[in-house]
Protein: UDP-N-acetylglucosamine 1-carboxyvinyltransferase
Amino acid sequence: MKQMIIHGGKPLQGDVWIGGAKNSTVALIPASILSRTPVTLEGVPRIADVDNLMDLLNEMDVESDFHETTLRINPEHIKMSPLPTGKIKSLRASYYFMGALLGRFGKAIVGFPGGDDIGPRPIDQHIKGFEALGACVKNKNDQIIITAPEDGLHGATIHLKMPSVGATMNIIMASVTAKGQTIIDDAAKEPEIIDLATFLNNMGATIRGAGTDSIRIEGVKELRAQAPHTIIPDRIEAGTYISLAACIGNGIRIHNIIEEHLDSYLAKVEEMGVVIDADEDSLYVYPAGALKMIQIKTAAYPGFATDLQQPITPLLLTAKKGEGVIIDQIYPKRTGHIAQLRKMGANIKVEDNIILVHPTKQLHGAVVSAGEIRAGACLMIAGLMAKGKTVINNADNILRGYDRVQEKLRQLGADVKIQDAPDNKDEEEKV
Ligand code: EPU
Structure:
């Protein structure tokens, strides 16, 4: 287990560069096996999920090489292998191998995906999609076995019950090589879906309407990657640094941003009174003055992202008066960070899955635990704001999703260290 040690209270300033989007990357790596030719991804973030996906590729005899921010994947010698256990459990996104293997081989055997502890995360819509394309889906010994009919998958019209990011991406991957036309109605509209469609279209797929709620896919025989694909910037990492800059920044410029991807987030931050200047692909966050309390409800894109409700929570604590309300409609039980913030002196509570936030003059250091990636981001910001030393246990969860985080925070002037947790529990508890 890793832990992040923070000596907080230092104002931060300078420049930070956002990496490629985690939630694109973790789909594009499995999608790479749809190509008959080598794939090059540029702007790949240094996160643990990438290492885990590379290990899974290796199990299928797919070579990969990650240098700086370029990931080369060669699926020319791929063998169809079951991916029943092991690494598959270590990340949610391993479920993309279902759609990718099905699209490439007409068969997938994949263990039930693992991932963050943020409440129930069913995959019924993914399965409904595969079945609509003609596949037979069976569950056996904690594995999902998906088999296309003998004459291959065929196009179909699929109405999703909700705009699921994972189901939309998985159905796209399975249907790019199906016979005929597939239509996904009520599809997710996240920028990461457009990124996947662009990546596949550049390999010869015919996907139209990505970014709208109706996506149409004309099946093609095979895909062949040619030019490198540059991954879009991570809007959630960007939002995390915007919150950090507003909480404890003394003027921070955040580079490599697509501002439009952050519209609903920026609207809320600016409603609080944070002043932000936008440039072509960067934002400058001024040191914050007296801030107003706000209410937030998460929603599917282009609404306020569930992945940004935890990172913005410390900012609400700095408001001068009033009661803040945060409701996560995507994952109502994504509230594990609240008990941890309370350990740091935050005046915050959860009632019936509604987070109620009250102004808090000063957080203090504590030993806390990051139950999932975004809870980790929230605690990291709180630790930087707090007086004294904060120890974030399970910091592995932060490393799963935040590109070169120690380096980036240090560049802004933070006193932060990521280290292996000591075996001795007493040592670990000392603050
Ligand atoms: N849902 C179902 N059935 C399904 C699929 C989804 O009921 O078959 C429900 C979920 O329970 C949830 C809602 O639909 O209430 C939306 O879930 P979605 O499928 O969109 O989420 P996901 O694809 O599993 C991705 C990201 C999450 C992010 C969500 C929402 C990846 C690997 N994960 O998950 O990212 O929170 O979309 O935007 O892309 C994170 O980065 O911290 C993270 C958890």
